[in-house]
Amino acid sequence: NAGVTQTPKFQVLKTGQSMTLQCAQDMNHEYMSWYRQDPGMGLRLIHYSVGAGITDQGEVPNGYNVSRSTTEDFPLRLLSAAPSQTSVYFCASSYEGVTEAFFGQGTRLTVV
Amino acid sequence: GQSLEQPSEVTAVEGAIVQINCTYQTSGFYGLSWYQQHDGGAPTFLSYNGLDGLEETGRFSSFLSRSDSYGYLLLQELQMKDSASYFCAVSNQAGTALIFGKGTTLSVSS
């Protein structure tokens, strides 16, 4: 009964380093999204996908890349981390784009 | 684009009723959703209104008026465990992902 699994839970990066945040879901959902959450800013949409091989940009896509090679996995890549990317990142999946979204437990990323 | 407005903070006492309002501007509308998030936790789904009117789920109800671009979440018989952030959300223009408001922090005191 895993739902949406994100790894790692915590990460500290140095400015300029790259890393991939992993997200996997076992509910066979076609729709998956990445959000970042900063104090007072709510959840802001970074990138989303409507199925394997299909991705699109959200509200704040700069500095992030995504790909969707399988239905289950939707990794988020930071190519060159910046302190402005310090945030909590949530991955979500849903059966449709407008219905109930299931969230992972989040990745708390600090860029120093 | 899509935008949502909701109050930043609401306070109430145990046993009371509180209403959290949400107004939105959208290009294409597929419904209004509400999510709850406790400190340090992940958002969890509370309710969805696709049509005008009231949806009730236990102590929580949600209302939508599409003509007014307005909805609210009503929490009754408040408990300490209801202290959390509450987010309203609409879909993006294509109906393929959710856009969230900035959230309302509810503090329930005894």
Tell me briefly what this model is.
By secondary structure, chain A is mainly beta. Chain A contains no helices and eleven strands. The relative contact order of chain B is 0.34.
Write the layout of secondary structure elements.
The complex is a heterodimer of chains A (112) and B (110).
Chain A lengths: L3 E4 L2 E4 L5 E7 L5 E8 L3 E10 L2 E4 L6 E3 L9 E3 L8 E8 L6 E3 L3 E5 L1
Parallel strand pairs in A: 2-11
Antiparallel strand pairs in A: 1-3, 3-8, 4-5, 4-9, 5-6, 7-8, 9-10, 9-11
Chain B lengths: L2 E3 L3 E5 L4 E8 L6 E6 L6 E6 L3 E5 L2 E6 L4 E6 L8 E8 L6 E3 L3 E6 L1
Parallel strand pairs in B: 2-11
Antiparallel strand pairs in B: 1-3, 3-8, 4-5, 4-9, 6-7, 7-8, 9-10, 9-11
Structure description:
- The complex is a heterodimer of chains A (112) and B (110).
- With 112 residues, chain A is mainly β.
- Helix content of chain A is 0%, strand content 53%.
- Chain A has no helices and eleven strands.
- In chain A, strands 2, 4, 5, 6, 9, 10 and 11 form a seven-stranded mixed β-sheet that branches. Chain A has a four-stranded antiparallel β-sheet with strand order 1-3-8-7, with no helix packed on it.
- In chain A, strand 4 and strand 5 (42-51) form a beta hairpin.
- Chain A is globular and about 35 Å long.
- Chain B has 110 residues and is mainly β.
- Chain B has strands spanning 3-5, 9-13, 18-25, 32-37, 44-49, 53-57, 60-65, 70-75, 84-91, 98-100, 104-109.
- In chain B, strands 2, 4, 5, 9, 10 and 11 form a six-stranded mixed β-sheet that branches. In chain B, strands 1-3-8-7-6 form a five-stranded antiparallel β-sheet, with no helix packed on it.
- In chain B, a hairpin with a 6-residue loop joins strand 9 and strand 10 (98-100).
- Chain B is globular and about 45 Å long.
- Chains A and B meet through strand 4, strand 5 and strand 10 of A and strand 5 and strand 10 of B.
